[in-house]
Every structure is written in C-alpha cells, then in structure tokens.
Amino acid sequence: MSTTTAFPTLHPSISVEEPLAAHWLAQVTVRLRREVCWLRHERRESHFDRLQSALDSSRLDSRRQEFFMQDETAAYLSAQLGQSPPAVPEGVRRGSFSWVVKELDLNPIEAFTLALSILPAIDHSCEPVVAAIMNDSSSVLPTLGLIQKLWDDNGNVLSLGDPAHKLVRFGLIAAQTGDTVWERPLVCPLPVVASLLMTDTSSEALQFVRGNDVNLTIEMRYAAARIGTGSLERGIIIPLIGRDGSPFADFAAGMGREMGRPVYRLRSRPPRGGAVDQWLAPWVARSWLDNSILFIGPDIFEADIPPIQVGAPAVIIVARTEHSTAVRFLDTEVATSLKAPRSNYVQRLQWWKEGLRVGEDDQQALSIIADCARRFRYERETIARLIDECRHLDRPLEEKELLTICRRDLRLGDLAEPVTPRFELKELILPRKQKRQIDEVIRAMRNLTRVHYDWGTAGPWAESGLSALFAGPPGTGKTMAAEVIAKDLKLPLYRIDLSQVVNKYIGETEKNLRRLFDAADASDVILFFDEADSLFGKRTEVRDAHDRYANLEISYLLERMERFKGLAILATNRKNDLDVAFLRRLRFIIDFPLPGPKERELIWKGCIPEDTEADLEFPFLARQFQLSGGNIKSVIFNACLQAAERGAKQELRMPQVIAAVAREFDKMDRSISLELYGPWVRALGEPDET
Question: Which of 82, 274, 353, 476 has the highest Cβ tally under 10 A?
C-alpha cells in the first residue's frame, strides 16, 4: 500500500491506505516524535524529577513551546501538524475510519484519540516510545495522561474518560482498568481496528452464515421488517428459542436476508471467569461498523454469566435451547422472544429419506426410518449429524443400530436415572385382568406411530404419547411391570429422581419439570414416576402464596403430561391422594392388588434362584401367608443368606424360609397367629434345624 502522509506510523514498513486514518496516525506519530525531542532536551539540561516536573508544569510548558519553535527538528515536526485533514468523500466505505468520524461527528481531539488507541495494534514500536514519554517502563499503552501531554489544547481531555463517551460507548475504545482515570489504558480492539483500516475484514472468529432455506414464522418476518426499516439508537437483542438441534443459524440467515444484512456467527467463547463485556463488545462494535447481524449460537453462553453490557447499536440474535437459562443484556432493547418452529413427522421423515437415500421401493428401510421419525423428534441439525454417523457403516443399516445411534443424543441430566430392565413379561405374576391391561399398554405403544400418522390421529391428539397409573400397596409389582414394558418395547426406562425435581423454592419445581419433559420429548422413552402422589397430589384451597404456587405446580404438571409424547408411568401407594383432574387425563389406570393364593404360589416358585435345590411346601406358603410379591422376594433372599451358612451345598429348606417369614412380618410390624406356621412353628426358635 502507498502512504498518503509523511509520518503514518513509527515503523517504516507499515503504511495505511485509508486517507483520514493515515492523516490522524501521522498526527499521532508527529506528536510522539516531537515530545521525545523535548524530553531528550529537557533531561540533558537538568536532572529529571517527576515531582518537580509536575510542580513546575506551567514554567516547563513555556520552555516546551519555545523549544518547539527554536529546535530545528521540533520545528519541522510542528510544521507537519499544520496539515488539514482530508475531507471525507461521498460513498465512503461503511465502518472505515472516515465513516466513523463522519457518522459520530468526531472533533479533532476525538479523532486524534481514536488514532492513538489504534497505533499499538498495528505498530509495536510505539510501546517503548510511550513508556519513555511517561517515564514509566510499565506504561506502554496510550492513556488520558499521554493525550494531555501530546495535545496542545487539552481542556477537553477528561471528557474522553467518561464511560458514556461515544468512543467508549460504541466500543471503538475499550477503557481498561487503572489506578486513576489518567492511567487507564485506551485500546482499540483488534476486530474494530480491522474494520476501521482494512477493506478485507474477514476473521477466524466470525463465520459467514449462508444458511439453508427455511420458512420463517410470521413473528420472525415481522421482527425483521420492524428492525430492518428503522435506524437503531442502541443495540437490539433478538432471543431465538428452540429445541436442541434446531437450525438456529438458518433462521438467523433468513431474518438477515429479510433485513438486507449479512449474518456472521461468533465462534469464539467468552473467557472463564473473565470480563464477558470486554470480550463481546468488540464483536458488537464490529457488527455495527459492518452493518451486519451478530449471531451467537446456543453453545456460547453458560448459565452463570452475569448481565452483559452492550453499547454499539448492533443487531444481535442470541439463540438458546428451551431448557437453558436466558442471558441478560444491559443498555439494549430486547425484542420479543422468537420461537424456532418444531419439526413435524413429515419433515423428519423427509430428512431421513434424503440423508440415507432411501427410495420409495425400499419398504423395509422406509418402515425403519418412519418409526425413527416418530420416535425421535429431533431437529434438522441433529438428524444431519446422526445421518453422518450412519454413513460410516459399511453395510445396510439395521433397525437396532439406528435406534442405538439415535438414543445417544438423549440427555435427561441429573433429574432422571436410567434403569436397566431385568424382567420379561412371562415373569410378571398378576391377576388376569391386570395382565391383560399391561398387554394393552404394550400394544398401544407399538401401534402409536401407525395410528397417529397413518390413521390421522396425530393432529387432534397433538402427537401425544401415553400415560398410565400403577396403583397398589408396596411390593405388588408396579416397578417390575414398568421394567417388563420397557424390555418388551425395547425402550429406555428412566426413574425420575423426585429429590432433584421437587424444590422448596417457588417456581423451581416447574423449571425442573420443564427441563425434564423438554429433554424427554425428543425421544420415545418411558418416564417412571415412583411415589407419584408427592408430585400429583390434590390441589388445595388457597390460603397463602405457598398454596397458590403449589397448585400451579400441579396444573403445570398436568398440562405437560398431556403433551408428553412418550410413555409416562406413575406409581403410587395412595391413589386416593391424587388429583381428580389428573386421573381423568390418564390413558390407563391399573390397580395392583395384593396377590391371591394362586399368584403367591407362582411368585414363591419364581423367586427361587436358578441351580438352587428348594425343598419347600409352596402351596402351604402361598395359602398361609398373605405377603406381596416384594415381601416374598425379601423372604427368599434372607433365607438364602442364612442357608448359605450351612455349607457349600446350594439348597433351601423350610426352616430357613419360615424363620425369614417371621422376620418379614416383624419388619412390617404385623403380628400373626402362631397357628399359621402349622407344623413349622418350631422353626421360629431353631431356624437351622433340618
């Protein structure tokens, strides 16, 4: 590049093409050179004393001005300062130094200050010069104190340190921390320097968002039209909310096209524990200078970021997922939150077909991906990533492999615990009616895709899933039934950790429930709420604020249960404590009674460990002792622990079992007649007798 002014910078290899910037950088260079000349002269004449220099500033200033006129070098440099700045031409590039001077109507000292703050970013030679002038080896960056030394008429210097000054407020100068206002370094951030001086302003930290074609919502088009037609006086934040994997960047690019502005995605992350304001401000200023839109994806901000100060009047689209915490901004206009529309079954099916190149004649593959499109309600970006994983397989895709790949993205956090199903349907011992009801739940889940999308029930029922209530005394098989259903349907089962969900602070329980259901809604899963009465209890008469918010929790939970698209199973020992409105909304209600003699005998036999010789009177045990399935399992386990003391032989006999039965009744605080033990009553005192 050719230089347009005699002294653009200190280093000879650096030149600036922008005429007005070159002029003011030359002014900075000349004043720095002239001040060095004076300091050399002054320090040669007498021993330099900072304190004495400060006290004699008036006398020294007169001597300084005389030196500038009499010294040959200083006089030459002073003559250079008389050059008038070039006029700003019409059609100057937006974001350039000249455009900023004209747009913000900068006076000479402000233009000089901006150029001085730019110089350290492009010329390392200025640092020792600044340190020499300030007589401080650690002071290498421009300050207000330096400006006061360099500028002849320095009456307006202090106003430059005001945080509301336009150079600071618009992010052109980042005022750093310092002991006093005069010692605070004034730095022009590198992204801003690039826009002010260079025609090629590309940066690794910013990625141009071209975006795929998407259908913008009416709200998105309205927001784009309102913002695009007006002139901004301050920054505006557009919150864009959607599910994990939503094509946020595509929607941002679409809104940018509506506004006639390019969109750039910020790829750098804020420093941990650092000043987020100082990290973000240069990129906001850069967007304002370039008349672009700054897009910040949902992966940038963390939940614990404090409110962010934004100064420049830029448009910022901040994307976040539905369950993440909103980031707060100061000194900005926050537009109404825009929601990214959720994908529907038809869209998901089409994305799977196009990505995996499945033709209409491949009925088997179509059936697999159709089931995936219903089961996994992922958004476009997530599906594209899953398809990339599928392409790495060097064989035709199998249903089991595809389901495994899809389920890797399921994250319920610490609110739910995955449960590995242990039991099969044949192991579940229930009366005929309850067994038939469990079969109905399984059949309903298997046919949900076909009924919703082939029969057309998805619309009126909002693609809702199924909900079931398992009610009955402890140990009657409610948890076992949930595991049986999960294993038969090959669906992941999650037990909800109520200690993590329920929170004593008002509103926190709803937030936890929203996080839980938002995450679970993306995939076919089974949510198992044990002790559901603690969450789904009856709404009470409102006597205080706590009652009102408790009722809101229940109402919110009822509404989310209806919209949940998987299978929710609720277990309770106290059915009568549940809210009536909640019971009406359940698809299945299954009562688990205490087992009768016939069921108890089957349970006794089914609880014996494999390869264990059991010399037991099963009809007697089933007839005499009214125990639940859970109690019977406990009895067998305790009896095995005691029988193992007898030796290496794996056998179980009546005395150990009878003794374990007695201990189980003691544990339940239930007393029974000794007559029920029949001929085995003597085993109560001698459990080891054969």
Answer: 476
Beta strand 235-242 pairing with 332-334: parallel
Q: Are residues 219 and 275 in the same domain?
A: yes
Output phi, psi for 541, to 5 deg: -65, 135
Residue % of the chain over a pLDDT of 70: 84
- For tokens 């067994």, the residue is 435
> CA 265, 266, 269 angle in degrees (round to 5)?
150
Q: At 405, which amino acid appears?
A: I
- Kindly report the number of other CB atoms within 10 A of residue 124's CB atom: 13
Tens digit of each residue's pLDDT (9 = 90 or more) over 419-478: 889 899 988 999 999 999 999 999 998 888 788 877 877 767 666 788 899 999 988 999
| CA pair distance 551, 553, nearest whole angstrom | 5
The answer to whether residues 575 and 450 belong to one domain is: yes
- What residues contact 14, with CB distance under 8 A and at least 6 apart? 8, 122, 123
Q: Is residue 7 part of a domain?
A: no
Three-class DSSP labels, 69-106? HHCHHHHHHHHHCCCCCCCCCCCCCCCCHHHHHHHCCC
Given a contact cutoff of 8 angstroms between Cβ atoms, the answer to whether 592 and 478 are in contact is yes
Answer whether 611's CB lies under 8 Å from 653's CB: no
Residues 210, 353, single domain; the answer is: no
Q: Which domain holds residue 651?
A: 597-684
Token pair for 446: 């298997």
Euclidean distance between CA atoms 653 and 614, whole angstroms: 6
Provide DSSP, 559-570: HHHHH--SEEEE
- Check: CB of residue 332 under 8 Å from CB of residue 237: yes
Based on the structure, what is the number of domains in the chain?
5
The CA distance from 78 to 55, in Å, is: 26
Question: Which pTM was predicted?
Answer: 0.73
Give domain status of residue 464, yes or no. yes
- The one-letter amino acid at 109: I
Same domain for 189 and 100:
yes
CA atoms of 287 and 266, how far apart (whole Å): 11
* CA 642 – CA 619 distance, rounded (Å): 22
Element (H, E) at 130: helix 126-134
Asked if the structure places residue 638 within a domain, the reply is yes
**What pLDDT, on the 0 to 100 scale, is given for residue 104?**
93
Cα 409 from Cα 378, distance rounded (Å): 9
- In this prediction, residues 636-649 reach a mean pLDDT of 83
